[in-house]
Amino acid sequence: MSSIFICGIIFSILQSILFWEKEPGISVLLFVSSFIIGLIYLMYKHKKVENKKALIFAIPIILLSATYFMYHNTFFQTINVIMIVFLTMIMCIYATRMHVKIQEFLIKTIELLAGSFESISDVIDSLKNKFKKKEDIENEKSAKLKQGVKSFVYAIPVILIVFILLMSADSVFANIFEGIFGEFQNIFMAENFVMFCLRLCIIMIFFFIFSGFFVNLLKKDTMFNSESEEKITEIHVEKMTINMILTILNIFYLIFSIIQFTSLFSNMNTNNLDYATYARQGFFQLMIISFINIVMIILAKVNKGDTSNYTKAMSILTLLFTVVILLSAFFRMNLYEKAYGYTYLRLFVYYILATEFILVLPIGLWILDKKIDILKWTIGIVTLMYLILNFSNIESTIAKRNVDRYFENQEENEIDLEYLFQHTGTDAIGQIKRLLNAKDENVVIRVKEYLLREKEELQNTETSWQETNLSEIKAKEELVNIR
Hints:
Blueprint (H helix, E strand, L loop, with lengths): L1 H18 L6 H20 L12 H13 L3 H22 L6 H17 L1 H50 L1 H17 L2 H29 L20 H26 L8 H8 L2 H20 L6 H32 L3 H24 L6 H18 L2 H15 L8 H7 L5 H5 L7 H20 L9 H9 L5
Helix pairs in contact: 1-2, 1-8, 2-3, 3-4, 3-14, 5-8, 6-7, 6-8, 9-12, 10-12, 11-12, 11-13, 12-13, 13-14
C-alpha cells in the first residue's frame, strides 16, 4: 500500500501546484503525462498488466491533454476532461484482462468508477492501521524526542543571535529570508489562511480519490477485481422479435431509399434556399436513426444463441440501408451548410457521420462471423476520429470556411460576424483578421473593433507558467499591428 499512498500524495499535491486558481494550459499536459506514467508503474509493480497492447491508449490520452497547451477551445477543454478519464478507464480495463466482452466492458466500467469511491474506506482503514503501528514505535522514541526538544530550545538563543548577525552583515542574505518570512506572514493573514486551509482540504480530497482509484484497480477483492462466479448476464430476445423488427425496418428503409434517390440526391447541386431549408429538416433525425440501426444490429448479433442466416441477411440489409441514410444526412447537411455557412454543430455532424461510415466495414465483417473484436474496433475508430476532431483546430476551421465562403461572393454572401465573435476565440484570430480586407466598410469596422478588444484583453491578462498556451501566444503576435 505504501507505493499507492506515495503516488496518491504526489498526484494530489501536483494537481494543486498546477491547477489551483489557474486556467488550463501546459499544466494539463504535465499532470496527465505524470499520472499515466505513475499509473503504468503501479500496474507493473503490482503485476496487473496482462495485456501490454492496451497501454497504447496512453498515446491518445496524452495527445488530448496536449490540446490544452496547443489550442484554446473552451468546449473541448470541458469535454476532454471526460474523454481523458474515460480513455484512462478503458486502458485499465483492457490492460488487466486479455479478453473483454461487450457486456463485461460495461460492467467493469461501472465497477472501476464506483469501486474507486467505495475503496476510499479501505484507504482510511489502512491509514488507521499504519498510525497504530507508529504509536508503538513513537512511545519507544518519546524519551529521546523530549531530550531533543530540550536541546533545541537551549540552542534557539544562539541560533537567533548568529542569524541576526548574518542578516545585518549581508543584504542579499537578508532579502532572501525576509521574502520567506513574508510568505509565511501572508499565509497566516485571515483571508489567505482560509484559502490555505481550503487548498489543503482539496489536496486531501484528491489524495483519497486517487488512492481509492489505485486500490480498486490494483488490490484483490475490490469491486473491480472481485472474483464473482456469477455469469455475466447475456442478452436474450426472441429471434422472431428481432427478425420481425429488422424486416419491417428494412421495408420502411427501402421506401425511404427510393425517395432519396428520386428527389434529394438528384437535386444535391441545387443552390435553392428553400430546398436547403427542406434538407435541414432531416439530418438530425437521420443521424439518430443510424444509431438505432447500429444498436439493433449489435443486439441481433450478441443475442443469446446462434444467429440464423435470415437474421444475418436482414442485419446486412439494415447496414446497407444505414449507408443510404448516412449519405442522405450528409447531403442534407452539405446543402444547408452551403446556404447558411459553417457552425460547430454542422461540423460535428460531419465527423459523426464520417465515424459511422468507417464503422460500417468492421460491423459488416462482424455480422458475417469474421474473427473481429467489434468492441476494440469501435473504441479504436471512435478514439481516432475524436483525436482528429481535436487536432483539426475546429474554431480556426469554422472561421476559415466562413471567411472563404464570404470572399467567394461578397455581394451576395453574408457572414455571421456575431457567431464568429461569440463562439470562437484565440484559435480563430488569424482567420478573422482576413476580414480586414473585405469590401464592406461596416464589416471592416466591426472586425477591427473586435480585434482591438481581444488585443486589450490578452495584454491585460497576466498568465503564470502553468497557463502557458500556444494559441494565446500566436494570437498576441497576430494582433501586434492592429491599432
